[in-house]
DNA sequence: ATGTAC
């Protein structure tokens, strides 16, 4: 797409007007600096955003985040809100990794004190948290147990002694989205998920120990238990093969639904169905089941990681307890109420590679975050910084309570694999004092920092546009990847 | 993202 297509609204906001193409129902609103706009022009992500504007039932502009890149049908880094219940829901607007998300845990362990033990900690985390493609975890769930995970989400882990009620309170949707019904999850998806609870996966999924490097908002940092110079644990993963199969199943099933409901689409990958149709209802029930599987997966991983910390640091470090800061979803369709043209309206917010970023005072936020807004967790690319932000009143007003989710890819996986030597990259990161545990050197190369945008630029944009506020910057010291 | 093509 050409830069002249965009109308500049402010330093960090650009618009593709509705007049750009005759089938657009709404405009595209992109958050980007000049530099990030130019990066976004290099792939098909903005054409995809224009395609999304043709979906029936949109209530306002399709919003695009600065970490945008091309995805299946919808761009990764896109947000679209459709009227509930007559508007459509589209699996491609949520993504193959349903409820892919990030969890952050704080500690009072000082980096300087823990530094001699970090290599051992990296190995212990790698041993405790299975990672890699198709990797099985510590449990083989019977069908009735898997159904319970899909219905209960992270609460299932409380019953198993792997979670506390505080963990749930500090999880988006308290770790369980309503309306999940595993009867609409295929047997195939259930089979794939049955041994994957408590696993990290591959690709850009990771587990990381970071040091809190700089605090920008002391009040918010204090509410979250973040202290400069102390270690935190964060990880990024989702619903594994189960969610992937749910998305595949419904993308296929929706092909005929599109014809049945007479929906015109510029791209088959945008397949969708009205939320109040049987197809839409079944997908919602299955997608929510996969979302709960992912919440439970992150809860189990948190438990396994905590045990690894105890195993390595007990007796060496005075206090090693990890406290949940928050757990966010960045691939999800949620029914929420937003102010649309001055009136509250129930909508389905499709967030694909976009983080919910509720501002202060929103229902559903735990008491300690009511005044500061929802914690937003933005991991950078491997070996680079990550950010903790909070949602704002502006994000509620102009981005359906959403903000960015990461650095955003700029180089294809195949090109990164050609250009980057995994062994050299590992050595470079080790030289920077980052302990790496990598299941696959080819996988490591695909995630090289040069394959991603600069997360600091992305955060500068969302912060400058006002759709999130900076709380803390984190620096990695241990990275575990599949 | 993903038993990376039934």
Helix count from the secondary structure assignment: 16
Counting DSSP E segments of at least 2 residues, the number of strands comes to: 19
Question: For this entry, what is the oligomeric state of its chains?
Answer: single chain
Largest sheet: 8 strands, mixed
Radius of gyration: 21 Å
Q: What can you tell me about this protein's structure?
A:
- This protein is of the alpha+beta class.
- The chain has a domain at 3-105 and 117-202 and 240-374: Alpha-Beta Complex (tRNA-splicing ligase RtcB), CATH 3.90.1860.10.
- The chain has helices spanning 34-40, 45-52, 111-114, 118-128, 143-152, 155-159, 165-169, 187-193, 218-224, 240-260, 278-313, 393-398, 413-419, 422-431, 441-446, 455-465, and strands spanning 7-10, 13-16, 28-31, 62-69, 76-83, 88-89, 101-110, 206-215, 230-237, 273-274, 323-329, 331-340, 343-352, 355-356, 375-378, 386-390, 402-403, 435-438, 469-481.
- Strands 7, 8, 9, 11, 15, 16, 18 and 19 form an eight-stranded mixed sheet that branches.
- A hairpin with a 7-residue loop joins strand 15 and strand 16.
- Helix 4 packs antiparallel against helix 11 and helix 5 packs across helix 11 (278-313).
- The mean pLDDT is 97.
Provide a quick synopsis of the model:
The protein has 482 residues and is α+β, with helices and mostly antiparallel strands. Helix content is 33%, strand content 24%. It is built from 16 helices and 19 strands.
């Amino acid at each position: 797409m050409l830069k002249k297509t965009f109308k500049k609204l402010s330093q960090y906001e650009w618009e593709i007007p509705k007049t750009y193409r005759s089938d657009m129902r709404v405009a595209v609103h992109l958050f980007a600096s000049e530099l990030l706009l130019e990066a976004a022009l290099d792939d098909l992500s903005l054409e995809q955003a224009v395609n999304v504007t043709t979906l029936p039932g949109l209530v306002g502009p399709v919003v695009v985040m600065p970490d945008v890149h091309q995805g299946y049908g919808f761009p990764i880094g896109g947000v679209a809100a459709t009227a509930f219940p007559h508007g459509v829901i589209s699996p491609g607007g949520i993504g193959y990794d349903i409820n892919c998300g990030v969890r952050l845990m704080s500690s009072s362990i000082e980096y300087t004190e823990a530094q001699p033990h970090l290599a051992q900690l990296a190995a212990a985390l790698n041993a405790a948290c299975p990672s890699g493609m198709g990797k099985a975890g510590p449990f083989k769930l019977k069908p009735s147990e898997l159904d319970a995970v899909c219905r209960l989400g992270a609460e299932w882990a409380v019953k198993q002694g792997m979670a506390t009620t505080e963990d749930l309170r500090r999880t988006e949707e308290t770790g369980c989205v309503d309306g999940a019904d595993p009867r609409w999850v295929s047997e195939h998806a259930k089979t794939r998920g049955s041994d994957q609870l408590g696993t990290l996966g591959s690709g850009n999924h990771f587990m990381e120990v970071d040091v809190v490097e700089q605090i920008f908002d002391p009040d918010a940092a204090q509410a979250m238990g973040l202290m400069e110079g102390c270690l935190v644990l964060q990880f990024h993963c989702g619903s594994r093969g189960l969610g992937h199969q749910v998305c595949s199943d419904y993308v296929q099933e929706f092909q005929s639904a599109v014809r049945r409901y007479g929906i015109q689409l510029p791209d088959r990958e945008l397949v969708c169905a009205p939320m109040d149709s049987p197809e839409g209802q079944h997908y919602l029930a299955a997608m929510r089941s996969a979302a709960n599987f992912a919440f439970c997966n992150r809860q189990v991983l948190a438990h396994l990681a905590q045990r690894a910390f105890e195993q390595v640091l007990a007796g060496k470090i005075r206090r090693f307890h990890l406290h949940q800061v928050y757990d966010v979803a960045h691939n999800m369709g949620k029914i929420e109420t937003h102010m649309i043209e001055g009136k509250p309206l129930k909508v389905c917010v499709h967030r694909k590679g976009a983080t919910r970023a509720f501002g202060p005072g929103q229902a559903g936020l735990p008491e300690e975050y009511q005044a500061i807004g929802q914690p937003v967790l933005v991991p950078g690319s491997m070996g680079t910084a990550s950010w903790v932000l909070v949602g704002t009143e502006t994000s509620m007003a102009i981005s359906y309570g959403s903000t960015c989710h990461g650095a955003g890819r700029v180089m294809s996986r195949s090109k990164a694999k050609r250009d980057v030597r995994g062994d050299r990259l590992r050595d470079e990161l080790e030289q920077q004092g980052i302990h790496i545990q990598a299941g696959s050197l080819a996988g490591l190369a695909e995630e090289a920092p040069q394959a991603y945008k600069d997360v600091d630029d992305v955060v500068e944009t969302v912060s400058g546009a006002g759709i999130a506020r900076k709380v803390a910057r984190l620096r990695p010291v241990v990275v575990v990847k599949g």
